[in-house]
Specification:
Ribosomal Protein S5, domain 2; eight-stranded mixed β-sheet; four-stranded antiparallel β-sheet; alpha+beta; Alpha-Beta Plaits; 2 domains; 11 helices; 37% helix; globular
């Protein structure tokens, strides 16, 4: 049996600027971290023949190349998955929570198909497979591949962006303890399709310019920022993000206001918006006050130091 897992992620700054065509023209700075909540993929030989694929449904197939599951089918067709087999996909959180689960799954599938590939190759292959059928940006494959807390700088300009470009990958280990001590992740109870919202992002160039500028400024000082300054920057990026059509609504706005009045230093909705998970920075003594005020389910986490991993049992 092969077991593969890739961490989910929280993106703090720069989200949306990694979408094309904006990213191809202007580039992007992304500040994010992986969390110890995972997308799991198991593969096992099936001596009786055929393929059994289990996720939210179960598919009994002659071959995974005919699977209804888009990422599995595309991986089998483009890269091959050893058959006959039983393959099982399990996530630690529901899909549509804004934590990058589909991109983490794409990375696990690439690790299954290409177990000896280096991280720089895995995320590129994952991007090719998912973006063939999705509006996903470039950022989500990176925490799933590398783990940790990082600043990623994606070049743009005349040459454009594609899977051959070079990303500057800057680990910031000092921020790991800050996130572990002050970070709070709350599930709103609602999920959404990111693709249904990302169209609004692509039409919001003025906001994307401001988000990109803020991410660049935070990146310049990231090694020295304390919780108050980081929280203030998060508040600023949320104000920019929620001005984009479809990202927020009166319920989410009220939840954010309640968090702030009860002691949060700053925060943002994860992923494209419109539901999923909140991330807040909160002083430890105010943590329970924020949880109680919002009445939402906490997802306990720590920063995941490692990216995609695999074992043979």
């Amino acid at each position: 049996m092969k077991v593969i897992r890739a961490p989910l992620r929280v993106s703090l700054f720069g989200g949306g600027t990694d979408l094309d065509p904006y990213c191809s023209q202007y580039g992007s700075t992304i500040i994010s971290f992986a969390i110890n909540r995972y997308m799991h993929l198991t593969w096992n030989d099936r001596p009786t023949g055929g393929c059994r694929l289990s996720y939210s449904v179960v598919e009994e197939l002659d071959t995974l190349r005919d699977a209804q599951h888009t990422l599995v089918r595309e991986t089998a067709q483009r890269h091959g998955i050893l058959e006959p087999c039983t393959a099982t996909i399990v996530s630690d959180v529901p899909k549509g929570t804004g934590l990058g689960s589909s991109s983490a799954l794409a990375v696990t599938l690439m690790k299954l198909s290409h177990p000896k590939y280096v991280p720089n190759s895995l995320w590129r292959l994952a991007a090719r497979v998912e973006q063939a059928h999705s509006k996903a940006g470039w950022q989500d494959y990176l925490p799933a591949t590398y783990g940790g807390f990082n600043v990623y700088r994606i070049p743009g300009g005349p040459s454009g962006v594609g899977v051959e470009f070079n990303i500057e990958h800057q680990p910031i280990p000092r921020l790991v303890s800050l996130i572990n001590g002050y970070g709070l992740l709350l599930y709103t109870g609602g999920t959404r399709s990111a693709d249904s919202i990302l169209g609004s992002w692509k039409k919001s160039e003025d906001q994307l310019h401001a988000i990109k500028h803020l991410a660049g400024e935070v990146a310049k000082h990231i090694s020295t920022l304390g919780p108050d300054a980081l929280g203030a920057a998060l508040n600023e990026t949320w104000e920019l993000k929620r001005s984009i059509s479809g990202v927020s609504d009166p319920i989410l706005n009220r939840q954010y206001a309640l968090a702030m009045v009860n002691g949060a230093l700053g925060g943002k909705i994860c992923g494209a918006g419109a539901g999923g998970c909140w991330f807040f920075l909160v002083e430890p003594e105010n943590r329970q006050r924020v949880i109680d005020a919002l009445g939402l389910c906490e997802i306990p986490f720590q920063v995941a130091e490692k990216g995609v991993e695999s074992w043979t049992l």
